[in-house]
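[Q] Does anyone have a clean structure-token version of this?
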Amino acid sequence: MDDIPAEARRQLVETLNGWADCLMASGPPSRHDMAEVVDAMRRVPDPSQMKWVAAFLQEDLNQRDALKELATKGRDREALNEWRTSHALSYRQALYEIGSDEAYEVARSLLRHPEFGHDAAIALRLIAMPALLEKRANVWPDLDRAQSARERRSSQPELSLDAAESMLDVATELASAKPPHGRAVAMAAIAVVMPHIARPELMTKIAGFEVNSHIKLDLFNGMIVGGLLPPADLVLQELGKVLAEKEDRWWDDQTSYVMFSWLKVFPNTDRPDSIFDALALVPEKNLSRWHIRDILPQLRLLDVETRAHMVREFALKFPDMLSEHEWFDQVRKLGFRAAMDLLLQGAEGDLGKGFDMSSGHFLLTEQLAYAMADGDETYLFERLAQARSDKAKGWSSLFF
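[A] Here you go.
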């Protein structure tokens, strides 16, 4: 409601605060009524509302704890249904929409809460990094953020946010409990996206916990976005479990989406070529050409030498890639020399029989020519002189 005039907004905030005062003064308010007022407040967020948001949140948590005990001990179905009704999303959104110092402290103080801790962590992260809301990624993991995080880790390894360190401290406590809490994985998955001091031992420990696969996937993707490299062996181990659950079952579109989400992780692990181990685990009948093709953009964060090796391996292991536009686009992005090496190998037949230059952009050779730097012309002539086929030798006409 940013378009509300300032005076009308002030009056609306005062009215909502008045409603909250009346509601609290009338006796123990219902969880539903409190959530309704909080939902209204978050649409016109103001720091003055935190008095009531904090009070309502604590009252909601207290009532829910009482309902849980009543439902457990007395087998009260009505209490059980009310306990199952969560208003956590309303309070989480109110906290980060208000975004004040008090909202920050309330969220941080509740990180250890068994019911609201996860929502408190999300609110805390969004208060600390509002840019995550301002620029939402359409594709996850967001490789633009991942690249920035890697550069930041290289130049400022000690840079961290208090919010991230607080969450990781809680994750460490949860991971050290007897038995360890799976909530540690979810907490760490939220924290690692933010600038933080690397805790490799903690990451390795919690990555081995037995939790739902989607939480583990969140952790691995969060590590990538936070500039870290997930351990390939652990990611492979988790993928194997996911595939075992799907064995002898029908693969629908949702299953394919989940599998593809896992496959996208591997190029950005500590062993990028583990993607080929992962692809070998997926039943061939469930591995479509477009699944393989759409993994290629995940190579962009790798150094040129590793990326060139990976692009070549994709062509050798999956010959269909030699007629895919995306494969040629990845070749182009390697830079002139590495690209020419691969293209000449393709023209010579060293990558297989399916090599088709027309599958690339119709201006591919011009794009490469514009990318030539000093000395590249001599390099090209030397490579053409070594070519075995007339087709490869005739490429000089494409560049000059």
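[Q] Thanks! Anything notable?
[A] The chain is about 65% helix and 0% strand.
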